Amino acid sequence: MKTxxxxxxxxxxxxxxxxSFEQLDEIVLSKDPLLTHCLAVVKIGxxxxxxxxxxxxxxxxxxxxxxxxxxxxxCIIRECNEELGLVSFDVIYLGAMKFLMKPDYFSPNERIxxxxxxxxxxxxxxxxxxxxxxKDKEEIxxxxxxxxxxxxxxxxxxxEKLLEYFV
Length: 167
Known about the structure:
Blueprint: E1 10-11, E2 17-22, H1 26-31, E3 35-44, E4 47-53, E5 58-60, E6 62-65, H2 72-84, E7 92-101, E8 111-122, H3 127-133, E9 140-145, H4 146-149, H5 157-162
Parallel strand pairs: 3-8
Antiparallel strand pairs: 1-2, 2-7, 3-4, 3-6, 4-5, 4-9, 7-8
C-alpha cells in the first residue's frame, strides 16, 4: 500500500490525497471494507456537469456515502437520483479510487478510503431542466458545465482530476 511519502495523483486544499486509480472488479470493490463512497462523472455532450456544494463552497462531481447493505452500483444510482433527479440512466463503472483522507466531518482520524468511480452520459439535456428535478437542493444549490466555470469558480481539485477518467 502506498503511504503519504509515495507518489500520488493529486492533493486537494484540505490535504486529502488521491493516491491511485485501480481497475478493481466492481463486485470485489463492493465487498471491500475500505469502500466508503461512490462518485459519478456526468457528461453532457463533450462537457462535464458539476454541482455547487453549498457546504463546501465549490463545484464538485456527484455522489456520496455508501449506506448499509448497498453495493457500489446501488450507491451511485441512489446518489444520482437524489442529487440529479435521474431515474432511468446508464451507469458505466470506471474503476476504484484510493484516497488518504484527513480528519473531517466523517471521521476524526486520518484514514485510507476506497471509492467507486462511475460515468454517466446525458444527451440533449438542458441543465436548468435537471435542476428542477433535483431532490437534494439542500446540498446542490446550482449546476454548471465545466467549461463555464473552469478557471472562474472554485472546483474541487480531486474532482477536477477525476473528470479525466471519463472521456
